[in-house]
Amino acid sequence: MKEFSFSTRIFFGEGALDRLQKVKGKNVLIVSDSFMAQSGVVDKVASHLTDCQVTVFSEVVPEPPLTVVAAGVKCLQNCEATVMIAVGGGSCIDAAKAIRTLSTQIHGGKAEVMECFAIPTTSGTGSEVTEYAVITDTEKGVKIPLASRAMRPPTAILDPSLVVSSPPSVTANSGMDALTHALEAYISTGANDFSDAMAEKAVSLLCKWLPIAYDDGENLLAREKVHNASCLAGLAFNSAGLGLCHGMAHTLGARLHVPHGLANAIILPYIIRYNADLDTGGRTSKFTETAAKLQRIAKLLYLPSTTPVVGVSQLIHIIDDMNSEMNIPKTFKALGMDVKDIRTEVDELAEIAMADTTVTTNPREVKKADVKKLLLKVCGL
Ligand SMILES: NC(=O)c1ccc[n+]([C@@H]2O[C@H](COP(=O)([O-])OP(=O)(O)OC[C@H]3O[C@@H](n4cnc5c(N)ncnc54)[C@H](O)[C@@H]3O)[C@@H](O)[C@H]2O)c1
Ligand SMILES: [Fe+2]
Q: Are residues 144 and 58 in the same domain?
């Protein structure tokens, strides 16, 4: 038996922020970052509230560390807010989810009754609808994925006007994170008819609209389509799970200090090739179910796809093209990262990647020797 459920109410499209007008006379904590606070986005959000006492916690930083979550818990305790609003990219929303969950544990369930809104300002993580939060243990240099159904935000507000200020690099990285969510969910061992529907729509929206949003950040229609696609991809992977690309992105992202979406963007083409077993697939009778499924995605994108091998190759080609159009290189070395020590650390890194919970739903059985080879390849070694 499988389950597909989502408990988040999603308000989307231009003007979606108006939903906040229903929050009246409450004690509100806004969890955000310094850029959002300084650029006026936090004020814009707060201006939609009616007669509320507002506290702003703007200490979140990208790939949020445990220390930020601890400071947020303290802030929540001090201000005794009953409503929490997370405003920002995945880092702000994840931090808010962790703060809310930890406060709940500390206060014996009191925080569970809090109203909570997730308002993404990047289009990528889908964190506004997922039960996951990724926190970084900076001392150990590893990412800690937290998972709990209680972490699903009750309300998500997808207002494309909030994403317009995203610089091209953030648009590219977060957009490729969303594409990775959709594609990994689509071929994961947990994939199902419901998650497939979300993933297919997300992939077709992203392949059409992400390059447009990258080229013209003020194109509100493109922003809206990419924003919706990111949320659909979140719903897909929340049900189906992810795969080895995320396992390696968490590992190398923490080790090399590369933003999450950018790490996924670089690794994704290699993992698609690996999971589809492209070296043998299609030319013999041994082509995998994964390759056949990816061929379906290629057809959906109107790519040549006479055989699974042709379909998968074309899909990889499209991802490579999107990456290069958005200035994302093919390896971490080409990105300018110092990868010289990776060769000596590769054994340990492969173990960390394989232990990442996202890898449990990877469609191909993951062998350590293969992960080591892949880690070296993506690093350009
Ligand atoms: N919870 C999940 O299910 C999930 C899934 C994937 C990734 N993640 C996590 O999410 C984090 C990445 O989130 P992200 O990709 O959204 O980036 P981010 O939240 O780290 O933001 C990146 C940068 O973009 C800036 N920014 C955000 N919105 C902006 C806007 N509208 N205009 C200008 N600048 C803006 C931020 O201030 C920040 O400096 C990572 O920690 C990753 O591990 C979580
Ligand atoms: Fe991700």
A: yes
